[in-house]
Amino acid sequence: MADAYSRLHQQGWAHSIEIWQENRLAGGLYGLAIGRAFFGESMFSRQTNASKAAMLAFVSANGLERLRDSGLPGRVASPGQSGCIAHATQ
Question: Domain ranges in the chain?
């Protein structure tokens, strides 16, 4: 799986987003950008909501809008739940 994601990253499809707090890795997520959509999954959170912050930072930095997250309307999924999906705004 790691080799596959490494190849996808080299091709520009896979992304890993990290959140750092006071020089310490606080959390992050990984996912695939396909066309104008991003499908992400929480990696881990050492700080509360760090992987959620990573998703929101990636979405904001890439002009995306959060579409769905684990079927929980209005919030980003908690770690351990299925991934988040975002799409580019027009």
Answer: 15-88
